[in-house]
């Protein structure tokens, strides 16, 4: 242990660990960007380079988000710090429902996106580095059903995420109970650095 690491403050157990915070905000950012991209490319003429670029970017980000979601689930199950839901009992119940709904809907959305691309008989691109061909030979006729499910599920995720964000802001600015402090980015880097210096992941 060096003098610098010895001077670090102890981990704040009222906050999530640094890895959980980083994965949370990466997930949130990618969900918002991926939701916005179709709204943009639908305003562009079909089969034009800008539209095709945004579509490929959407699927590349989707593959990236898949990896992040898998890491997040594994981290939560094995090493991530878990904190109790805050607020009155009704609020805690609502928070748990939204939390688990997002954990179910998000992987389902990613799977639907992959299936939709393959139903269009198109491979999944990843930033021009490689592609994943259709392993299922999905009938072309299935793309309408999959597309509708993908679109509606996206809206449900955005609405639930928006409600989650509004609730966090109410806790922070109205109830002033410090709930948002749990997931703030300010100390996430220091938490990860301290854990690395101590030779163990944040718990």
Q: If you had to describe this structure to a student in words, what would you say it looks like?
A:
The protein is mainly alpha-helical and 203 residues long. The chain is built from six helices and two strands, in the order ααααββαα. It has helices at residues 3-6, 18-41, 49-78, 89-119, 143-175, 188-198; strands spanning 124-126, 130-132. α2 (18-41) crosses α6 (188-198) and α3 packs across α4. Mean pLDDT is 82; it is low at 1-10 and 188-203.
Short description:
With 203 residues, the protein is mostly helical.
Q: Report the count of strand segments.
A: 2
Helical residues, percent: 55-70%
- The backbone outline, from C-alpha atoms, is elongated
Query: Termini distance?
Result: 19 Å
Q: What is the N-to-C order of secondary-structure elements (H for helix, E for strand)? A: HHHHEEHH
Based on secondary structure, the structural category is: mainly alpha
Main sheet? 2 strands, antiparallel
């Amino acid at each position: 242990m060096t003098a610098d690491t010895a001077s670090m403050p102890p981990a704040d157990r009222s906050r999530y660990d640094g890895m959980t915070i980083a994965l949370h905000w990466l997930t949130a950012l990618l969900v918002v960007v991926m939701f916005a991209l179709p709204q943009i490319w639908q305003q562009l003429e079909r089969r034009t380079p800008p539209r095709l670029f945004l579509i490929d970017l959407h699927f590349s980000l989707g593959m990236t988000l898949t990896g992040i979601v898998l890491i997040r689930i594994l981290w939560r199950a094995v090493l991530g710090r878990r904190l109790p839901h805050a607020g009155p009992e009704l609020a805690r119940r609502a928070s748990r429902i939204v939390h688990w709904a997002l954990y179910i809907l998000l992987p389902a959305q990613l799977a639907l996106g992959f299936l939709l691309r393959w139903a269009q008989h198109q491979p999944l691109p990843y930033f021009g580095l490689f592609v994943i061909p259709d392993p299922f030979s999905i009938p072309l006729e299935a793309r309408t059903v999959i597309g509708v499910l993908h679109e509606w599920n996206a809206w449900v995720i955005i609405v639930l995420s928006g409600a989650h964000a509004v609730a966090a802001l109410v806790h922070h600015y109205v109830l002033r109970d410090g709930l948002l402090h749990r997931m703030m980015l300010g100390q996430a880097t220091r938490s990860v650095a301290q854990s690395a210096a101590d030779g163990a992941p944040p718990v």
